[in-house]
Amino acid sequence: MVALDDMLMLVRHLAAIAILPFTVAVLVPFWIGRQYHVALLPGSSAAQIVSQIAGVAALAIGSLLFCWSLRHFAAQGRGTLAPWDPPKALVIDGPYRYVRNPMISGVLFILFGEALVLVSWPHARWALFFLCLNAVYIPLLEEPLLEQRFGEPYRLYRRHVRRFIPRTQPWVPDGGTAA
């Protein structure tokens, strides 16, 4: 039998996912498709077919990265991806060893993947807007709050792991090698 705390945590995670990434990656793109009469059709040129293949790859990478990040965030951070229910512990393992915002990176891969699969400029503009929004929100609001909550361990992490561009090798806090 699942403990009540585990059930409540699951409900918190599902609510945060429904409100944030589901809205960004599913509801808004669906609305854009309806507004601009974008339909999923097979490519009619070599360039469109290549775009769609690249889009499927981006969707797969984004989905894997998002799920991998979310798993570490939930298990180690003991909080959700929502700003109103943040993690209790600093998460610097798994994909967080490579990039500070792997969930956002995953969502960006998904958004750009959608634009490529649909061969849709309106969807590409949405992906660019979401990128710009996070390029402003994260350093101005999220990172100062993380520094306030986690202090020097977060500052050390921030010095070694970039915000959006992944490292080629995982960062290991003690300077050792990754397992």
Could you please describe the fold and organization of this structure?
- This protein is mostly helical.
- The protein has one domain: Up-down Bundle (Four Helix Bundle (Hemerythrin (Met), subunit A)).
- It contains six helices and no strands.
- It has helices at 4-19, 21-35, 46-77, 102-118, 121-150, 152-160.
- Helix 2 (21-35) runs parallel beside helix 4, helix 3 (46-77) runs antiparallel to helix 4 and helix 4 (102-118) packs antiparallel against helix 5 (121-150).
- The relative contact order is 0.13.
- The mean pLDDT is 91.
SS class: mainly alpha
Query: So, CATH architecture?
Result: Up-down Bundle
Main sheet specs: none
Gyration radius, in Å: 18 Å
Question: How much strand content do the residues show?
Answer: under 5%
The tally of beta strands, per DSSP, is: 0
CATH class: Mainly Alpha
CATH fold group: Four Helix Bundle (Hemerythrin (Met), subunit A)
Shape: globular
What's the helix count?
6
Q: What's the end-to-end separation, in Å?
A: 34 Å
What proportion of the residues is helical, as a percent range? 55-70%
Order of helices and strands: HHHHHH
Low-confidence stretches: none
How confident overall, as mean pLDDT?
91
Q: Any idea how many domains?
A: 1
What are the SSEs and their pairings?
Blueprint: H1 4-19, H2 21-35, H3 46-77, H4 102-118, H5 121-150, H6 152-160
Helix pairs in contact: 2-4, 2-5, 3-4, 4-5
Task: Summarize the model shown.
With 179 residues, the protein is mostly helical.
